[in-house]
Specification:
single chain; alpha/beta; Rossmann fold; Dehydroquinate synthase-like, alpha domain; 2 domains; 45% helix; globular; binds nicotinamide-adenine-dinucleotide; binds zinc ion
Length: 352
């Protein structure tokens, strides 16, 4: 087992089941609830209950999928908590991917002005991307994460054993965030990552630790995303827009898949600005392209560009984007133009 200590809590990586009982003072907890979605109830809950020996007072289930990361679903969970007479000493354990973690964390942060919660992320994406940083919330009016707060959990328990039931597509999508961490901050990690041919053979514990340490370094210097933390948005300005436009179409993409595309397009923008050289751009493109084994359709380029204009990372009329200065080195808050976005999207299309 490995541990990453943050200011207010720690992230345990590996078979840390006993640690759950040690970390939480269950004497101070009035009632304990486990929040799951339909899939994690089937695939993750039995293992979690058996290994952790936790006997919850209630299992609260929500439907699986991003479309349920809404206030309506929160109402159902708040309702269940009231029905179970949960008081301010209650605890929620969020067992699931980023949807369960974000929604459960938000429900806990607002129920009776805030109760404790623990994150047990079960997808690679949520283990890498949602376990450090304290962002919780839900989507609203089709805008991703439009409602939410910063609030840290009591603890995070990460276990790669959950990947056994995760589809290859989900695993690959999560891996995009590790590629991102390497590209923004660690040249040697990028060089190692380039050698990986089969994600199922990765020795996950050291891998997750290395990747999370990059995120920790960036987040701890900037907990409220005023500056350096924006580095983590690399690939996301264009990626989020692609994800948004394709959502609910037959070509809808997983978050990490869209971020992969976003990283390629944004690397092109960095190259035309003279930040990345030609060789670096082709190295990045050639490697990221290996993970794009899904079809996508950028026909609605205007819609993608319009969505970028409304992206919440932008301030005033500026389109703010994190670009790479070099492989393993980011430059935050680059103000990019719509023309550059278009060049990036055209370059992206040309690659496939
Ligand atoms: P998700 O929670 O929808 O999980 C993907 C699918 O996998 C779901 O159907 C889920 O039921 C299923 N699943 C989860 N674990 C499984 C397992 N072990 N075996 C089999 N199936 C399993 O999505 P995600 O990709 O985990 O996360 C995406 C969400 O996370 C987005 O809403 C995004 O906004 C959010 N997110 C939050 C942060 C943050 O900092 N809070 C960071 C990144 C992403
Ligand atoms: Zn992301």
């Amino acid at each position: 087992m490995r541990q990453i200590k943050l200011q207010d809590y720690q992230v345990s990586i590996g078979n840390a089941w006993a640690e759950i009982q040690n970390t939480i003072d269950f004497n101070g907890v009035s009632k304990c609830f486990v929040l799951v979605d339909a899939m994690t109830k089937e695939y993750c809950l039995p293992l979690f209950l058996e290994k952790s020996q936790i006997k919850p007072d209630g299992i609260i289930e929500i439907p699986a999928g991003e479309t349920y990361k809404t206030i309506e679903t929160c109402q159902r969970v708040w309702n269940e908590l009231f029905l179970h007479d949960a008081d301010r000493q209650a605890l929620i354990i969020n067992l699931g991917g980023g949807v369960v973690g974000d929604l459960g964390g938000f429900v806990a942060s607002t129920y009776k002005r805030g109760i404790k919660f623990i994150q047990v992320p079960t997808t690679l994406l949520s283990q890498l991307d949602a376990s450090i940083g304290g962002k919780v919330g839900v989507d609203f009016l089709s805008l991703k994460n439009a409602l939410g707060v910063f609030n840290n959990p009591e603890a995070v328990f990460i276990n790669p054993a959950f990947f056994d039931t995760l589809s290859d597509r989900q695993l690959k999508s999560g891996f995009a965030e590790a590629l991102k961490h390497a590209l923004i901050a660690d040249r040697s990690m990028w060089d190692n990552i380039k050698g990986i041919t089969d994600l199922r053979t990765i020795d996950w514990e050291p891998f997750l630790e290395e990747s999370l340490l990059i995120k920790k370094r960036i987040v701890e210097n900037d907990p409220y995303e005023k500056g350096p933390r924006k580095a983590l948005n690399f690939g996301h300005t264009i990626g989020h827009a692609i994800e948004g436009v394709l959502l609910e179409t037959e070509h809808s993409l997983l978050h990490g898949e869209a971020v992969l595309l976003g990283m390629i397009a944004e690397s092109k923008i960095a190259q035309i600005r003279g930040l990345l050289n030609e060789n670096e751009l082709s190295e990045i493109t050639n490697h990221l392209r290996k993970y794009v084994d899904f079809s996508f359709d950028l026909q609605q380029r205007d819609m993608i560009i319009n969505l970028i204009k409304g992206d919440k990372k932008n301030e005033g009329d500026k389109i703010l984007c994190t670009l790479l200065n070099a492989i393993g080195q980011y430059a935050i808050n680059q103000d990019i133009s719509l023309e550059e976005v278009e060049v990036g999207l055209i370059y992206l299309e040309e690659q496939f």
